[in-house]
Amino acid sequence: MASDSVHLPLITILHHSIIFLLLFKLPSCLSSNPTYSNCANLISCGQIRNIGFPFWGGNRPRECGHPLMELICENEISYITINDVKYQVLDANPDSHTLKITRQDYSIDLCQPNQASTSLNTQLYVYDSPYNNLSLSYGCTPSEFLPPNYIPCNRTSGETVYSQFGSLSPVSCKTSVVVPVPLSLQEIDSFFQVYRAIKEGFVVRWIIGVEECDKCEKSGGECGFEGPSQQTICYCRDVPCPNFSPDDTKAFPGTSDIG
Ligand SMILES: *[C@@H]1O[C@H](CO)[C@@H](O)[C@H](O)[C@H]1NC(C)=O
Ligand SMILES: *[C@@H]1O[C@H](CO)[C@@H](O)[C@H](O)[C@H]1NC(C)=O
């Protein structure tokens, strides 16, 4: 008798969860997955607290985040690399899905960039607020086509950085780096103003797996990524992830915790 009374609601809930899966197209759900407890690990580093999906790094394993979204913690500062440019993470907000980031190579000096322009991996991120592109050009030889604004960089060598709005690369310069700056930046011939605008950083919003993960977490699971196609996956305990509130979990006396 005791077993009947356990099985009946189980079947009902399984039945409901199948309907739920059909209705809401939940990401595929693994049962009895030992990774569950590890994907509950959140990343904290310096001012950045409790960051989970879609990021991984530190004690949060690789399969709990997107492969290109590792948060690296060095001396209590978080870093992320986007399209080969390393950024310091100034702020992270899981509720708004935003990161405030600033280029690491410009954190000390405007004159020695790693020579890659800022660009976003548009499958993963979008700009969260309006910005202007600013092009900083290096190794320029005198030419009538150089932009009118420049910043002295090294007074000994006379090296200058040419600055102009837009995503442009003067032909008489060796290299140009495009960076997003706030719309408030006006004086692009002032080293201090340009440096401060870049150092202040900009806000990006992550867009990968956001809806699927909300559904997964509401159903009691933990999100991760799986396989070569990098599908969002919902890691659960030893039941499929049905859409039940935390209170309903207690209706499973037989459910054993993993870990
Ligand atoms: C900034 O430059 C990039 C690359 O050229 C371009 O895709 C983007 O639309 C530009 N953004 C603005 C606000 O002009
Ligand atoms: C400035 O330029 C001079 C001459 O090229 C060089 O010796 C010096 O190291 C440079 N200083 C900096 C800070 O880059």
Automatic annotation (TrEMBL):
Its EC number is 2.7.11.1. Residues 39-103 form the Wall-associated receptor kinase galacturonan-binding domain. Residues 168-238 form the Wall-associated receptor kinase C-terminal domain. It is a single-pass membrane protein. Keywords: Glycoprotein, Signal. One of its GO terms (molecular function) is polysaccharide binding. InterPro entries: WAK_assoc_C, WAK_GUB. The keyword Glycoprotein applies. It catalyses: L-seryl-[protein] + ATP = O-phospho-L-seryl-[protein] + ADP + H(+); L-threonyl-[protein] + ATP = O-phospho-L-threonyl-[protein] + ADP + H(+). Its main location: membrane. It holds the Pfam family GUB_WAK_bind. GO terms for cellular component: membrane. It comes from the Eukaryota. It is found in: Membrane. Residues 1-31 form the signal peptide. This is non-specific serine/threonine protein kinase.
